[in-house]
Each structure stands twice: as structure tokens, then as C-alpha cells.
Structures
1.
Amino acid sequence: KQWYQRRVAITAGYVIDGLFSDQLLHGLRDHLYLNSLYYYDDSDDKGETDNVQWISGHRTVEFVKSEVWGVVSRALAQLTGVDTWYPYDVSANLNRAWDHTRIHKDCYDKDEYTFLLYLNPEIKPGDLAGTVWYDQTDFSHIVMSVANKFGRVALFHCEIQHSARPPQAYATWARYTFAVKVARSKYDAVRRELVEAVGLSEDGLSDDDEDLEMWYKKLVKEVKGDGDAMEAKLKEIQNTRAAESMKALQDAIRST
């Protein structure tokens, strides 16, 4: 399948049309509609958050088995010349007309990419709901404005300053996007996901739990940079938490 991509005048940023077939696009949208559970994120993160408040996270261990990841990984390999990218954050995001998004980076001092797919088939020119890329130091200077178009992809390096644009005030629908953040290797990606899952910083540190830090340092030594071994531990943690959540739900039902 032929697809059109345009590299914009900014370090490692691309706009891609025609990457997915209509069948795959609508299939993904239907899947997300049926399987997304959104939570309200009102965290401040010292002003560094994107302020996207309605987010539904999806498990990377399931996503990498999908046809969508096959398309994403091939596009990443072709555009960057690297074929080892692996996802650490997969989510569906909603932005309403009255939301206030922020200019931000997706990472600091890392070589990672964000793959953003627009999923609004009803979008029309002038509805906004796109993404803006800014000059790295002068936020009054817009380097590129990516218009929202169903099936369009904005692929950009994580260090690029950017912001989501909400829809126009008259819109009765939300800006709907599917975001995949990738690290350069499976180990790096799974490690990032694991430390977040257990409540550690990106460096594996904790302000108040030395035992957790020691557990993490021991784990790093045991897996020796093996992404599969790290992923097995992540699955164990996720499955344990899922079982605990289900038990809490069942207990609550029995008590009513």
C-alpha cells in the first residue's frame, strides 16, 4: 500500500496520510469504543503535563500482537532506520471543546517517538482539534500545525514541544486520538512501563520506599537487559493487580 508522508521543518517530525486501510481504521475505532475505560486525569505534574484529562490506557503486551502495531512498527523502521522500537505507553485520548491543553514534551533527554493517530471521521476543515508543534524555546512561534483528518498520523520525536488543540467551541464531539509512545528497545520500553506501574520514578527511585528501590535494583540485575524477562515480570504485576481489583469488586457486590 502506498502512503504519503511529509517531513516537516522540525527535527524528526512527520505527517502521514494513507498509512492504514479504511477497514483497519474503523476496526481500531470500534475496538477502542468497546474496550476503553476512561479515567479523569487532573494531575498537575508541576506544569509539565499535557492536560489531556480523559485517557484510556491499553496494555502494551496485548497491543504488540495486533495488526495495528505491525503497521506502526514498519512505518517507524522505514522513517527512522531503526527496527527495534517498542511501545511503553498506549492510550486513547479525548479532548473536549472546553478543555485547556498545555505545551509540553513527551520526554526529556531520551531518543523516543510519539505516534499519534486521528480517529474523528466526522471532522471538517475549520473544526480544529489538531496538534501544534512549537519552537523549542519560543512558544509564540508555531513551527507546524497538523490538521485533524481521519486516519492521519503525526509522528514526532518526544523532545518536540507540542500541544493538542481542542475542537471548535461549537463541536458536540471530542477530539479522539490514539497515541503510542515508543522507546528504542523492548527492554527500555518495558522497564519504563514497569517503574510507573509500581510507583517509582523513571530512574527507579522512590521518595519513601527503600524496599521497593532495592527490589527494583535486584530485578534489573536479574534480567540483565533482557526485554522478555522484564516483560514477564510486568505481566505478573499487571495480572496480580487485575486479580486483586476483581476480588475487591466481587467483595463489594457480595456486601450489597
Note: Residues 187 and 225 are 6 Å apart (CA to CA).
2.
Amino acid sequence: MLRDVSERNLHTTIQGLHIDFPIAIAPTAMHRMAHPEGEVAVARAAASMKTCMVLSTIATSSIEEIAEAAPGGLNWFQLYIYRDRELTKQLVRRAERHGFKALVLTVDTPMFGRRLADTRNKFTLPPHLRMANFDKLTFKSEGVKGSRESGLNEYAASLFDPSLTWNDVKWLKKFTVLPVIVKGVLTDSDAVHAIASGADGIVVSNHGARQLDGVPATIDALPEVFEAVNGRCEVYLDGGVRTGTDVLKALALGARAVFIGRPAIYGLAYKGQEGVQRVLEILKDELSLAMALSGCRSIGEIQKSLVIHESYYLSRL
């Protein structure tokens, strides 16, 4: 307390590249189901706020569309490794060619978890939409259209490679010039495996709690992963971030930045690019205020001592 917090500096870097504040857009699928401009609007919003957007492999806007819509933006590409390895390589080459700055490899999805709402609804992609990163009139593009249960689960089961191992991270590192961020780590042992496989960063993520029931909240898993990494790569967090104080806690516990998924979609559904920008503005303002009230004038001044787990107090009752 009693520090001059009249000015706060929220600037930071991820993978050596500048962002104005440590809140970025996580990869989520099929944005055009929320708004006609879909991922294009999200990319423009992120670029206007000078932060990062991660485009999903199974997006309804293509790599090329994002590069054209936000040419000055900081864009990363989320990658699923397909059974067709040549197709996977083509996706990576397109991302490299169009100025994407990192690959975010999702490692917690050898297959999709059981999403009962999707099954009940027999989820399918609307007829006017497709997976835009793939050629038209192929199952990779159109495969979520028809379904006996969940079209998305059937799509993943038929195309994603469930035999992946840590050697596949090494395989990816061998042929790409981009940093490889491993997304989906929740334990210290997996963090060590990721580093040994050459990961340039780790996203502590439980896939929005949509894969395996009962997994820990990412904020609870973060300290263990951060300690295991021991400064050897950057650590990020996604999942459960709804307020600026959530961001402050994650930064205090070791995250370099946080990535938001659902809040960005909420903003997109509300008002397209403007709605996403507003979500980012709210979180940025809340983080700035939380820093001021915690006596932090810059991201570097946010310390682990700011966060005490509730179990500490419960143990003293």
C-alpha cells in the first residue's frame, strides 16, 4: 500500500512480441455460428486492442481470411494433428506463409469428450457454414453437417489422430520455423515432457472443462506447472477467466498472459467486432484497477504473495 499507482503499465511480451496487456483470445471453433463475420471480427478486435488472437484449426474463417482482415495483428494458429500428416503440414505452411507468429498445439484431444448437449441436439454445422481451412466439398470441410449423434464428435473421431505422443511435438518442431506452444497441460509431469519435447511455451488449459469431467480448474493447476517449468519457457493460462481479478491471480501465480474463450464469443454474439473489443476493454480496465488496488504499477510488480488459497484460512478455523 501507499505506492504511487497513479499510472499503471500493462504492457508485456509473449514469445518476444509486444502486446498492450496480458489478455489474449483463445482458440475456439466456428465463430460464424455466433456472428456472420465470425473469426474475422475477432481478429480485427484483437488487432485494434493490440493483443493476440489464436485461430482454431476448425474455424469458419480461413487462415487467409484472417491474414487479410488483420494484416497488422498478432495472430497465432491452433493446430490439431490430423491422421493425414501431409494435410497437417499444409496447414502449418499456410500459417507460416501468411504471417502467423506461433503454433498452438492442442494435446488434450486425442478424441473429443462426451458433450451431452451436443448429442441431445444432434449438433451439426448450419448448411451455409463450413470448416474454412479445408477444401470445399470434402469431409474435412463439410463433415460436421450430417450426424446421428454429435457431428463434431464424429468429425474428430474420424480425422484426429488418437495415437499422438510427445514424439509428435518433436516431429512438428523439426519442420516449422514457428514457436510451438503446447496447450492442454495440467500437471508437472506433462510440463516436463513438453519442455523435453522442445515446447516454446505451455498453456495451462482444461479445454474449457469440456473434455474430462472432474479435472482441476486451471488456476489450481497453474502453480504446479509453473514450478515444474522453472523459467525454461513461458507459461500461459486459459479457462475460467471472467474478471480482471482473475487475470491478476493468474499473473501472480506465474502466467505470462491469459487467454479468454467464452467471453470473446459472448462479445461477438452481442455486437461483432465492437462487442469483442468491449469485452477486452472491460477486462483490461478491471485488471488495471486491480493492480492499482494491489499496489502494482507494472506487470512485473505482480507477485505470488498477492494470492493466498482459501484452504489456508479454512485450516485455521
Note: The mean pLDDT is 92.
